[in-house]
Amino acid sequence: MVRDRVTARRAKLRRLQRRRRRTRDVRDAALIAHTSRHVDWLLEHHPDLRADELGHTLARDDPFWYRLVSDPRLINIAEIFTGPDVALFATHYICKEPTVGRAVPWHQDGGYWPLDPMDVVSLWLAVSHSTGANGCLKVVPGLPTTRLMDMVPTRRDEVLPLEIPVEVDERDAVAIELAPGDVSMHHPNIVHGSDTNTSTSWRRGLTIRYIPTTTRILDAELSSAFLLRGDAVPGLNQYLPSPTFDPDRHMAFES
Questions:
Q1: What's the CATH code of the domain at 95?
Q2: What are the distances in angstroms from CA 155 to CA 52, 56, 152, 161, 163?
Q3: Which of 17, 101, 118, 169 has the most neighbouring CB atoms within 10 Å?
Q4: Measuring CA to CA, how many Å separate 73 from each of 58, 68, 180, 228, 232?
Q5: Peptide bond before 117: cis, by omega within 30 degrees of 0?
Q6: pLDDT tens digits, one per residue of 39-98
Q7: CA atoms of 202 and 98, how far apart (whole Å)
Q8: What are the tens digits of pLDDT across the range 26-41?
Q9: Rounded to two decimals, what is the model's pTM?
Q10: Which domain holds residue 161?
């Protein structure tokens, strides 16, 4: 029975590997507005961080962030690929300021992640409009995605320090344009990146990495692990307790 579920889950992840998917209007406008305010709050309270550096170390102790990643509408999507036992591996706002927001080099997410096996699905939640003009995510469906490549350091000032060792023809890239509240999903082997934001508008998005509880997290320091649905595998991962709201340390919000 367990083996059948694992086989079915991996088949769904393989189908996801072949194409990126989009789901429209997953989040309502009110919650998206709160999410954008959350980005502003984080930037105000962490002036040492850039808008593309709001990552999992903040999420570990942030009740509103936990509210976002544990939203049933998002977990319902993740469960299609992970099965009924769903955990969070890591989450990260990747936001680009108007005119100066940095590019993201061509990469594969799985090259960064300490997971065994690499059973994981990424959801990218659009907090603002994400367009070609403001540096939306782009994918290269034509590149081989059956394996993870050994990435190399990038020599440019970009959001990530590593990139794939393959020259990408920009003409092959497909822009994933989203409206606020839309969600796109992708496999850890998909080659993707994004351009600098040259527009006068923000590009704001939240990445959420969901795993089945059968996936082992090899380095807890690189995660913000929460058990979100179903059952944990005894002795496999250590999950954090849900954060408790403190008005002196957290953004107030309506649940």
A1: 2.60.120.620
A2: 18, 25, 10, 8, 10
A3: 101
A4: 23, 10, 15, 12, 21
A5: yes
A6: 999 999 999 999 999 998 999 999 999 999 999 999 999 999 999 999 999 999 999 999
A7: 5
A8: 557 889 999 999 999 9
A9: 0.86
A10: 2-229
